[in-house]
């Protein structure tokens, strides 16, 4: 009798929790905007004011509610526990390996029992490993937890720039170390750019470097990330004295837009020139050139080298020769070179012509020739060596889904190839051209995963509704029965020409080991099939992205891999458009939708986050045609009354500088007010995070674990059903 009473009590407490959210709807203060004669109602514009105590209170209450719901899911901590177990099995992990020309290795290393990575180095591969920098012991303020986001050794490895970020804020401070003395200079550079924009570029005498400086450090300011500048810093100088060398303010004649990131590039210490590129969301960038001596003497005589229309990408300079990938009349790219003293980017010297359905993805210079990689459908990678006017295919140790290359430069033969796949661990090799041999050079011992031995990968294509073939990657157990009962996690992106390349993901494999399938649709908008694949999923053609995903979903159902309501969507950032619009277009197909840091309100995207830089990808509200595209891809605006929507978990980091957290809040608020189903619509706010990265690994595991547990719960996995909850 006591057990029956307990079950009944648990059931009603669970139901009361779910019903409680319905009584805590956000206050709606509608705003009606008019665009080109079209009126658009924005019911929750008021939630954009993150200084309003009522808005903050509602967000906090929703986040607390979400945590209370997630905490009742059995096996909620399974993912975290398994990932930490794998980490212990690994003993340690290594990332961000940098090798100088004099064979000094710098890298980040995290031992199994540590939360964050530390900086290490060794002289030569077999040299003694030395700890250089521990961000926790070098931080006296316990309230602030920093991680190392970038390390950049000087040309000779005598000095090291260490970039630190806090709580996902994507704004760095740079510390400088004398490597031999292990001495940290007292000067700290603040307001530095994230590591993926510009980075650190050292002077040839190792006395200083260029970096991108943000004038404003408030990520919630409308002027954040605007009017950035390339700054030359000399070691020992006061960081408060800003030596601006490349910016709109310093070089007004160059017409540098406020949203561009002007970065100075140097490829070798003996380069004659510096190149200045304007970094934005596109691969093809306006680029300028200046004599190195002129810049260091304070002159401002930058000259434009090429414009976007010439479609120059992935540049490298050797003496007076510029090597590059060209997209000019070649959407899958060709490898070219031109003379910097008399450049021609429209008709350059072609070294490797466009290769049919293979997209050239990367190249590196060595003394022996140019190594380059290609990919087909974003999932089949190949390695070539261009030498003496010919390209030679190099057979890899195993079939690879993706390849990355690293070399010391054009004066050395050293070349490293890192290969991986959906079910193949990442392996790092040193390639010897003379013997045509690959020598394993993993800095981390290879780990055995016997629990994943039966997992296989299937690469297929699916016809979209317009007949276009969409690549689809499927990861599942070899003993899978096609009975329509498998739980599917569908993860995709489809934007900014980014290819979703195969990589060894313990996350995916843990999902598969619990009876599921991982599906990765390589939809239009990405770069898997070249430039045209990107533009066919951009701006007005963005509906192709979610239509491709819907076609892949229907394929899985028709082929009995799964069935409707047994499929969960998982997307982040620009992938929020993909998943949000698939959900609002076909809510009948999906059992759960999980979106992290998602772009969900594209009509208002310019009012927060990366703002104008995203115009290049999504379009502008000031252009009538592009406005129509923005309205069509706006998931928030496509939530309709009295529709049964699937369960949703919408996650965001409060410190996100790219996608304003109110996009997630508005989406959940409108969903709660209009959803006819009883499925939960949860808002999860990470008050220590940003745009998904820049946080300690355990915190990241916890966030992913919540998403997986939510998906398994909603798709009906018996091990994840809370007591008293009716299994779907």
Give me a quick take on this structure.
The chain is an alpha+beta fold and 728 residues long. A hairpin with a 7-residue loop joins β28 and β29 (415-420). The chain is globular, with a radius of gyration of 26 Å.
Topology:
Blueprint: H1 2-22, E1 31-35, E2 38-42, H2 53-70, H3 78-90, E3 92-99, E4 104-111, E5 118-123, E6 130-133, E7 146-153, E8 159-166, E9 172-178, E10 183-184, E11 189-192, E12 201-202, E13 208-213, E14 229-234, E15 244-246, E16 261-265, E17 273-279, E18 287-291, H4 292-296, E19 303-306, E20 312-318, E21 321-326, E22 334-339, E23 349-352, E24 359-366, E25 369-376, E26 380-387, E27 390-394, E28 402-407, E29 415-420, E30 427-432, E31 437-440, E32 455-463, E33 469-477, E34 487-491, H5 506-513, E35 516-521, H6 531-535, H7 543-558, E36 567-572, H8 575-585, E37 592-596, H9 615-618, H10 624-632, E38 647-653, H11 662-674, E39 681-686, H12 697-715
Parallel strand pairs: 34-35, 34-36, 36-37, 37-38, 38-39
Antiparallel strand pairs: 1-2, 3-4, 4-5, 5-6, 7-8, 8-9, 9-10, 9-11, 12-13, 13-14, 14-15, 16-17, 17-18, 18-19, 20-21, 21-22, 22-23, 24-25, 25-26, 26-27, 28-29, 29-30, 30-31, 32-33, 33-35
Helix pairs in contact: 3-12, 7-8
GO molecular function: oligopeptidase activity; serine-type endopeptidase activity
Domain Peptidase S9 prolyl oligopeptidase catalytic: 504-716
InterPro entries: AB_hydrolase_fold (IPR029058), Pept_S9A_N (IPR023302), Peptidase_S9_cat (IPR001375), Peptidase_S9A (IPR002470), Prolyl_oligopep/macrocyclase (IPR051167)
